[in-house]
Amino acid sequence: MSLAIAGSRSRFSRPGWLSLPLAIGFLVILFWLLMTLFAPWVTIYDAMDMVGRRLQPPSWEHWLGTDSLGRDVLTRTLFGAWHSLPLAILVVFLAVTIGSLIGAISGFVGGLVGGALMRLVDITLSFPPMLLAMAVAASLGPGLGNAAIAMVLVWWPVYARLMRAQVLEIKEREHVEAAVAAGARPSRVLLRHIVPLSWMPILVSATMDLGQVVLLAASLSFIGLGAKPPTPEWGSMISDGATHFYQWWIAFGPGVAILTIVLGFNFIGDGLRDIWDPKSND
Predict the structure, then answer these.
(1) pTM of the model
(2) What DSSP string runs through 203-258?
(3) Are 163 and 194 in contact (CB under 8 A)?
(4) Which of 56, 77, 121, 179 is deepest in the core (most CB within 10 A)?
(5) pLDDT tens column, 128-166
(6) Of the candidates 119, 93, 88, 123, which has an alpha carbon nearest to the alpha carbon of residue 202?
(7) Per DSSP, what are the bridge partners of residue 66?
(8) Could you give the CA distance from residue 235 to residue 255 in angstroms, rounded to a whole number?
């Protein structure tokens, strides 16, 4: 075990572990996190107020033009990070917590309890994620809170299955068998000797899913099941741009924001996966 720990430490401490995509991903996400915190001080306009002529093209005064109500598109794009990033973090956190708990119990306990939990996972995964999210959001009504509930229901089974696979593999290792033979309580064996070794695949998956949650939230808002107007949310802004096809700048800002965030989280997830399992690069 000491050799395995030493190998793990050397893997993280070697000088070349920080790859270029990982660094780019961190910089992109850091930028949007700063926009989430400091958007009111970055722009001189208010995201809700009419500050210019309707459908004004990009200019020195309005770098990304104005929308159909005369609001500054760049300002609304920056303020959109207020809603999209915290929502994505909350959804992934809840999905990881619920899914990991159910998956760990299913893999460790097994039997009828484990089988029943996994059948619930299979039933949920049998529905297309987008359609399931749309159905839940439509039944609950439009709003970011209801959209968050819908997305948690879509994502938790993924983490349940991933955690269960990790638990099934780790609980057969010698140190777990030694803890059981020493008389450790089942809860202690699970929480102390199994779960801490299962976090890295969960972290990699969660990092990549953050971008996908942002994309799904924008999709729900695009079709009217997410944020309510006049909330500056990227999906609703793209929906507004779709109704004004020739005013391309309305959808350009939020579209680039979604693209960069999805790529940023994917770069970070790929980098973390390469650190955790360098053989995946071969």
Answers:
(1) 0.87
(2) HHHHHHHHHHHHHHHHHHHHTTSSSPTTS--HHHHHHHHHTSTT-THHHHHHHHHH
(3) no
(4) 77
(5) 989 999 999 999 999 999 999 999 999 999 999 999 999
(6) 93
(7) 72
(8) 8
